[in-house]
Amino acid sequence: MDTTRMTAGRPAIAVLDRDCWFCNDEVRGESPPGGWLLDDGIWRAGAAPAGMARAGTVVLEARRHVRDEADFGIRESITFVPALGQVLTAMRAGLGCDRVYQWSTMAAYEHFHVWLIPWWRTSAHGGPAHLLDVVESPAREADVLATAARVAAAMREAS
Prior knowledge:
Elements: E1 6-7, E2 10-11, H1 25-28, E3 36-39, E4 43-47, E5 58-62, H2 74-95, E6 99-103, E7 113-119, H3 128-136, H4 141-158
Antiparallel strand pairs: 1-2, 3-4, 4-5, 5-7, 6-7
Helix pairs in contact: 2-4
């Protein structure tokens, strides 16, 4: 069955891609540390794996295989901001951060996902320099699990 469609004059990519780390849990290998913070069938969010970013970083991903916002269907379009807002609110409450940076490149996989990176006024840098700090100082597993638990608790309290 062909699961592609035309979007904005270009062929959209498959609904699910068997080789995609985001689409296929077998390629991913395991759930995010601490489990899924959000999984509503359209969006999933989980803590970034240890070694990839600082503790507290969350990745929000489209469940369907889409490259970017231009490929969103109606359901993704109307649910993206509420899902993002739910995760941002929980991150601020659970982590006590002042802001949450959003970074999205689709460099490794052409699958829409947003890195949500906590920032505090006490952080060494702001702006792009903070992103470099995050990449150059990845978290340990124990710290990732602890911060994921705090964000999960904040999500439960909000619902």
